[in-house]
Amino acid sequence: MAAHARGLTGRVTGAPAVVVRDLVRSYGTGAGVLDGLDLEIARGEFVAILGRSGSGKSTLLRALAGLDHDVRGSGRVDVPRNVSVVFQDSRLLPWARVLDNVVLGHEAPPVQARAAGIAALAEVGLAGRERAWPNELSGGEQQRVSLARSLARSPELLLADEPFGALDALTRLRMHDLLRDLLRRHHPTVLMVTHDVDEAIVLADRVVVLDRGRIALERRTPHDSASPGTPTGAHTALRAELLGALGLDPETADAGTTTADRKDTP
Fold it and tell me: Residues 189-205: pLDDT tens digits?
């Protein structure tokens, strides 16, 4: 059971951090994007969500983030009080300096917030760039600022919507290494939406495939603690199973690609 899993952080987890019961979301008179979805995520667990366009991935993430108030269900949605979101777009304010972007909306007193922001920027390798403007940073650096903004709030639950989808392949791999390191130090529960099957396998403790608003498949991932992120035979077998669940031929699918359409609807 996920509630007793060992997360990427290496910490033995206990009671679930996230509990979703019978979650329903529809738009207009169309079919439901989420159709009675049930999901539990253990404390400290990293869960990756895969699915074809319209399967409900980003809709689920928005519901857990409290950004969508039109979901309903006969059960419940329980999440920790302290939730932070990282998007594919870093969403930095171009007229605000890096540190001001990191501490924007922080609930702590200004002095404490800025201290937390400076520490978070140092953790993501951007010490000394506090007064830089966003347009002075590369795409990878901007996404590091986005991660720092989340870390500065010490989130219990980190929600990530394709956080590395706009980055080139090499920068993405570097961000994977950075994220692993940050998670081991901060121990948040993580739910990440991605279209990259390989990314899901090497980062997450568990991969969930959504189809028509329900869980179609869920699998725990193989991790080599000595060489995290290194493909193994188990990785290859799981990749083939996940691609099959997504309706793709593992022999012909491009590495790391699950669908050409990278957005849920609407």
Answer: 999 999 999 999 999 99
